[in-house]
Design a protein that fits this description.
Distance between the termini: 48 Å
Strand content: under 5%
Structural class: mainly alpha
Oligomer: single chain
Radius of gyration: 20 Å
Helix content: 55-70%
Order of helices and strands: HHHHHHH
Number of strands: 0
Number of domains: 1
Number of helices: 7
């Protein structure tokens, strides 16, 4: 009779609790030592492509709600605990932007960058 290397009956997967990981905003707020509003603002400016910063500043001054979808995305990303969900939301935003984003958002890339958001999440781990 073969020797039993591990007794699998001792494992109880039904009641095993997953460790609760901090959400993205909790990680950023802890590292940056700021509040929720500052988290959203800082993430927004970090996620914009560098060449669009002057134009983005002007658009925020002229038309305050131009970046409403971007801020909504950042708030949603802040609540995610799972990397897969985080990346899925970014892809959803990208698809929505290409379908109905308008000329400024598509051609001039006047929107948050998915790549920069991914890099930010990786840096805050």
């Amino acid at each position: 009779m073969p020797e039993i290397l591990f007794d699998w009956t001792c494992l109880n997967f039904v009641n095993a609790e997953r460790p609760t990981l901090p959400c993205f905003s909790e990680q950023a707020i802890a590292q940056w030592e700021c509040d929720d509003a500052a988290f959203v603002e800082r993430t927004f400016w970090h996620a914009l492509p560098r060449l669009t910063l002057p134009l983005a500043w002007l658009m925020r001054w002229v038309q305050a709600d131009f970046f409403a979808r971007d801020f909504e995305l950042i708030r949603e990303l802040g609540r995610t605990r799972d990397a897969q969900e985080y990346y899925f939301l970014i892809e959803q935003f990208r698809d929505e932007t290409f379908r109905s984003g308008g000329w400024l958002r598509r051609r001039l890339r006047l929107r948050v960058s998915g790549m920069r958001l991914r890099q930010l999440r990786w840096a805050l781990r």
